[in-house]
Design a protein that fits this description.
By secondary structure, the protein is mainly alpha-helical. The protein folds into two domains: 54 residues, Homeodomain-like (Arc Repressor Mutant, subunit A, Orthogonal Bundle), CATH 1.10.10; 144 residues, Orthogonal Bundle (Tetracycline Repressor, domain 2), CATH 1.10.357. The chain is built from ten helices and no strands. Helix 1 crosses helix 2, helix 1 crosses helix 3 and helix 3 packs across helix 4. The longest helix is centred in the middle third of the chain and has 27 residues. It is flat. The protein starts with 23 loop residues before the first helix and ends in a 13-residue tail after the last helix.
């Protein structure tokens, strides 16, 4: 493991055997592709070196280790998801909704990465901008500084939790995913009303369990935040921007 990154001017500037000019962006793109195709085991310097046509040790010029690279990959997904997002041009609730949909969609598009990284703190530029935007929206809603941070934590954990859950479902082999979805109108429908009276009472609605609950959870969370937001001009309300 390298002790630290080599300054940019000292990094390799010659193409690799496959004609690739190494850079942090190129390595992140390759890692994102490999994990998407082959799963978490693809995130190794050996696999990356082979794909890029370079000695695996060359990757340590750009990243401390594979965990450092994973965080860069996660931050790349955040950046792609939030590209073009302009929260200051919309009401705070609409801004939080769009932000949630963007993050959720971004990780669903990369389900195998979501399972690895949705719960991590990237501590990189795209994440900084995302957290800045989310807390800014909540302060604009009138929440004080402490409440804005607390509510943002609940908001983003809810979004990322659903993103990871839905991504993990998508990452299942198709036959397993289909079997799980069918269970709600199969095994559950055949349960004894005597042993499971509550499930029997709602039997015809149980197939709803096969879909993602993200939209419903997001609506509930946003409604709760709207109900909790201080009225305009209330003492202690955040100033926002």
């Amino acid at each position: 493991m390298a002790e630290g990154r080599i300054p940019a001017e000292r990094r390799r500037r010659k193409p690799t055997k496959t004609g690739v000019l190494l850079s942090e962006e190129t390595i992140v793109e390759c890692a994102l592709r490999l994990v998407g195709q082959h799963g978490p085991d693809a995130l190794s310097v050996r696999r990356l070196g082979a794909a890029l046509g370079c000695d695996p040790s060359a990757l340590y010029r750009y990243f401390h280790n594979t965990d450092d690279l994973l965080l860069a990959v996660a931050d790349r997904i955040i950046g792609e998801s939030m590209a073009g997002f302009e929260p200051d041009r919309m009401p705070w609730r609409d801004g939080l909704r769009e932000m949630a949909l963007r993050i959720h969609r971004g990780y669903r598009e990369h389900p195998r990465v979501a399972a690895l990284a949705a719960y991590r703190v990237t501590r990189r530029a795209n994440e900084f901008r995302s957290v800045e935007a989310g807390i800014g929206l909540l302060r604009r809603a009138g929440f004080g500084d402490e409440d804005a941070v607390r509510h943002y934590s609940a908001f983003v954990d809810t979004v990322l939790g659903h993103a990871a859950l839905d991504a993990a479902h998508l990452a299942l082999p198709p036959e397993r995913r289909a079997a799980d979805d069918r269970a709600w109108e199969g095994e559950y429908a055949r349960l004894s009303p005597q042993e499971h009276p509550q499930l029997a009472a709602v039997r015809r609605h149980l197939p709803l369990m096969a879909g993602s609950s993200f939209a419903a959870a997001l609506d509930l969370l946003l409604s709760a935040l709207e109900a909790a937001a201080p009225p305009p001009g209330a003492a202690g309300a955040g100033t926002g921007r």
